[in-house]
Amino acid sequence: MKTSITFLALLLISSFSFGQDINKKIDSIITDNFKKNPEVGISVGFIGNNKEFFTSHGKLNAESQTQIDKNSIFEIASITKILTSNLIAQAVIEHKIKLDDYIDNFLPKAYVLHENLKNKIKISDLASHQSGLPDIDFGKLVALDPQQPINTVTEKTLSVIINSSSELKDYGKYRYSTIGYTLLGLILEKVYGKSYDKIIREKILEPLKMTNTLTKDFYVKNRTTGRNTEGGIQEFIKWNITAPAGLVKSNASDMVKFLKALLDEKTEVGKAGTITEKIFYKDGNRELGLGTNILTDDKNTIYLKSGDSMGQSSIICYNRAKNWGIVILLDQRNSKMRQNLLNTIYDTVLK
């Protein structure tokens, strides 16, 4: 018995030391990046074997003395798609929908598919960016209003795009789609008879106690200030019909709660996560689940999703087999920096 207890104690100490070592290495990488780029605020959350770690640098804005921390609010932008696809998977588990159901009967009355498009587009096609549907012209919207580019996008805007489409030029091929995830939000509203806002709150935010994750009314004291690629101040994008595609605001603390639930297959979020992780699209360059990119080498399979608003960048990544997850949030639109940070952390610490 003494031998067993001693062995167990040594094992626990070894595990603790290993976790501490990972945390120190991540902190060192993030600190070094901030020293080189002091104009970019950052907040990082990591979970490994159910142990949480956070590090952050910078201030909420140029006029504030308040430091960014794990509770500071950022735009997670297209990481929202992972939340939406998780809700879709939960609806599958609850037998509300099937992933190979055609979207025809789940759309609001305002959307009328052309005869050529009927019974062709599946729910999984929307979630894996291969529906072939035309998308919102984001570049044109940015030119019209660089601060709030989707401010004028309404249900009528979307229904006109869908209803006037008579062919799917690239069905079955990858093409990133905002409108696809907007339609997934409408499908969720149809099957649950509730708003997307209420659904995401009841099925993810409230059960996981993600009290600082915002879907609207996000002008709170602890929010960061977004900055575009030139360093100019950028407003947080406002909530509207396209919310399921990228308009959620959150922080490192809450996103680690989400990662923790995602890695635990006993939770509803974790059960749904295993569905979103199945490969629904594959070509020579990428593998996609539902709302998530899948990267595999000879030792690891990781799932990740990045997000870029007009003024902030973020990325979330996890390895189910090795039970770790990480989220990186930047207060400036800088996709290269957030990707380089993840690559460095993964290659030198987590791989």
UniProtKB/TrEMBL annotation:
<keyword id="KW-0732">Signal</keyword>
<dbReference type="InterPro" id="IPR012338">
    <property type="entry name" value="Beta-lactam/transpept-like"/>
</dbReference>
<comment type="similarity">
    <text>Belongs to the beta-lactamase family.</text>
</comment>
<protein>
    <submittedName>
        <fullName>Serine hydrolase</fullName>
    </submittedName>
</protein>
<dbReference type="InterPro" id="IPR001466">
    <property type="entry name" value="Beta-lactam-related"/>
</dbReference>
<feature type="signal peptide">
    <location>
        <begin position="1"/>
        <end position="19"/>
    </location>
</feature>
<feature type="domain" description="Beta-lactamase-related">
    <location>
        <begin position="33"/>
        <end position="336"/>
    </location>
</feature>
<keyword id="KW-0378">Hydrolase</keyword>
<dbReference type="InterPro" id="IPR051478">
    <property type="entry name" value="Beta-lactamase-like_AB/R"/>
</dbReference>
<dbReference type="GO" id="GO:0016787">
    <property type="term" value="F:hydrolase activity"/>
</dbReference>
<dbReference type="Pfam" id="PF00144">
    <property type="entry name" value="Beta-lactamase"/>
</dbReference>
